Amino acid sequence: MESGGVIAIGDINQLPNDCLSHVISLTSSRDACASSAVSTAFRSAADSDDTWQRFLPPDYLYMLSRAVAPVEYASKKELFFRLCDRPVLIDGGKLSFGLDRWSGKKCFMVSARALWIVWGSDERYWSWVPVPDSRFSEVISLIDVCWLEIRGKISTKMLSPQTAYTVYLIFKLADTARGLGTPPQETAITVGEEAVSRKSVCLQPDDRGRRRLLRGQFRMWGGWGVGAGMGVANEVDKDATLPQKWESEGERDDGWMEIEMGGFYNSNGEDGNVEMSFMEVKGGHWKRGLILHGIEIRPKH
């Protein structure tokens, strides 16, 4: 003990690089980035492949082998943030794979082409179109249907184990959108044989988060008109979940809108498939103007 009662300790910077790397890898990617500012020794350990190897999922090389195009990276840290910022298309471009920036858990989006959509192959009701800001080569646009039913699935083995996930429908509304307010749509999530989530949602409320009417107001995203000034107001179910765009002023970084379909917990990835459905089949009225990007599964925060 030094004079003044201060306990002398060894300089942590003198620890071997692999020891520092192991300690940093037990934190988080966010902490690893912050620790690089502590000292030169910490920076070396925090940026090392040994550290970032532990933040990547164990099967990341297998996932990359399924990519449509080779994924180039100079370091494991660069790869980690590449997957966070720009998900990789896999399985013939029908699925995207990425990572959650804060947890390193796997994220996926099932493209519209990989979903089962009632009358999706009938050009009288749906149209397949390319959109510049889509991560996939094409999305599907609703022309007119009286029976809206969309289903998708993903294997629990592909997801990160011991992880709570949330499922989102990713979409836009054309300026011709009609009939997507009432009755509200219904969503369901099933894991294996167990139904784990059911929700009532509304894609086209007549007011902004039940606060302000959107009559005559629209914005343009990626060349598409997105709006809710549709003339006849839609009554919003007070218990229905609204799209993120109407719940807050923020929007997704990619410009699309999202609405939560439900959530589930992936224990050990041995439950079979996660099945996800979105439908409105009770109203019997016609619906149009939904531009469907896909269904996204990402870790719950």
TrEMBL record:
CDD domains to which the protein is assigned, alphabetical: F-box_AtSKIP3-like
Name of this chain's protein: F-box domain-containing protein
Gene3D superfamilies reported in the protein's UniProt record: 1.20.1280.50
Source taxonomy: Eukaryota, Viridiplantae, Streptophyta, Embryophyta, Tracheophyta
Boundaries of every F-box domain copy: 9-55
PROSITE patterns: FBOX (PS50181)
Listed InterPro entries: F-box-like_dom_sf, F-box_dom, PP2-like
SUPFAM superfamilies the UniProt entry points to: F-box domain
